[in-house]
Amino acid sequence: MQQIFNFIIRNSNRLLFLLLLGISLALTIQSHSFHRSKVISSANFLSGGVYERINHINEYLNLRTENEELVLENARLKSLLFNKEDTTKLPLPDSIKGVKPADIIVSKVIHNSYNTHENYITINSGANDGIKQDMGVINSKGIIGVIDNTSPRYATVISILNMKSQINAKLKKSNHFGSLTWDGKSTGFVQLEDVPRLASIRKGDTIVTGGQSVIFPEGINIGTVDKVQTKENSSYYVINVKLFNDMTNLGHVYIIKSKDREELINLEKKGKDE
Amino acid sequence: MNSALLVNIFRFIMLLAIQIVIFNNMNFLGYISPFPYLLYIILYPVNGNRAGLIFSSFLLGLMMDMFCNSGGIHATACVLLAYYRPYIFKFSFGLSYEYQTIKLNESLTPERFSFILVSVLLHHIVLFTLEAFQFKFILDILLRTLFSTIFTIITSIIIIYLIKPHKR
After folding, report:
1. pTM surpassing 0.80?
2. Contact B30 A25 (CB under 8 A)
3. Per-residue pLDDT of chain A (274 residues; tens, 9 = 90+)
4. Interacting residues of A157 by C-beta distance below 8 A, sequence separation 6+
5. How many domains does chain A divide into?
6. Is A122 on the interface with B (CB under 8 A)?
7. At what angle do helices A12-32 and A2-10 cross, to 10 degrees?
8. Is A33's Cβ below 8 Å from some Cβ in B?
9. What is the nearest CA distance from A120 to chain B, expressed in angstroms?
10. What is the CATH classification number for the domain harbouring A211?
11. Which residue of chain B is at minimal alpha-carbon distance from A44?
12. Which domain holds residue A236?
């Protein structure tokens, strides 16, 4: 017993080092695994609060560009409103669940990273505003990411510029779909993988979100085809997609709260259980 | 003794704040950002409490991870650097470093520069390796380490000169 104590006292620094190294390595490995959200994230009172303060200053400096974007979007919405077709021709709204299958929550980006392989965005609304894990995040130009962690007032978003992110997407003109990933190289481009070679693709074609995902509604803009490559020994294309969004400059975002989501997940779970 | 502790706590908070507010938003060429918060570990007193250094470095790294959403990579790199700091001292200043009173924030000699260089290099290699976590990015890791090391050293030396005490 005496010897054990002596050993511990003699090597206290080394033991402390090994203990802390073990904890930090465990946190690192845990954060790299796909289906678990992080223990340490910036969706908490301290870092969320600090980022909100910093963002107040940045926001003030970017007021002009933000205003211009809002004016543009206003103009677009007005043109939609005035050019609307006769409403009698529209399909009837779903009378049980209400008109829209999705609700929109408006929020603001308070911290945005884009210089690592796994990028996260922090926004200033959280569980109190009804935000939950795996909701989709978009802005006026296109998709941004998927909600990861939430705290009462803040939430983190897995950006599409994150090598862990995988989003169902398809070609706008046909229904060939694939999964949207990022190769970690450029902030302006993402990759659409697993598109069958049967699909005819030309440079400049628009890529939108696919209907298979329960996170995003169908048909939200992502980007345009920039380059089409073929993997060796495979019958699938890898498409380089140029994003509509400038991911290095994000302001207000919309979070999509899909009403069908729980129903769909329960249904799929039921199928698996049986 | 007490004032040394206070100076360390002050350094810890100030360097962390500067790192988060200013340097984390610096993205040269899209992905290179300096990490001068390491100065806390580099400037810690040579004969100070070693367990204290290791534990406070872990906390420093953990705070960085919280703000960067990066899991535990900063904590790992900081703990490693804090533990191996005496060996780097030995490498740069020779065996008798403990008997000298080394003040890093005096003039910059080759020994001091080599100490800062080796420390920053060790930290950055660990940091970027764990960040990528895949061997196919080996070139990317080396490039990031190289450029970030250069920028970290430049900003660190500037900060050392700025906070140099005006005694004597």
Report:
1. no
2. no
3. 788 888 888 888 888 888 888 888 888 887 777 655 666 677 777 777 788 888 888 778 888 888 878 877 877 777 676 666 545 444 444 445 444 555 778 888 888 888 888 888 998 888 888 888 888 888 888 888 999 888 888 899 999 888 888 888 888 888 888 888 888 888 888 988 888 888 888 888 888 888 777 788 788 888 998 888 887 777 888 888 998 888 888 888 888 877 667 777 778 778 777 6
4. A120, A121, A122, A123, A137, A144, A145, A146, A147, A148
5. 2
6. yes
7. 70
8. no
9. 7
10. 2.40.10.350
11. B66
12. 167-243
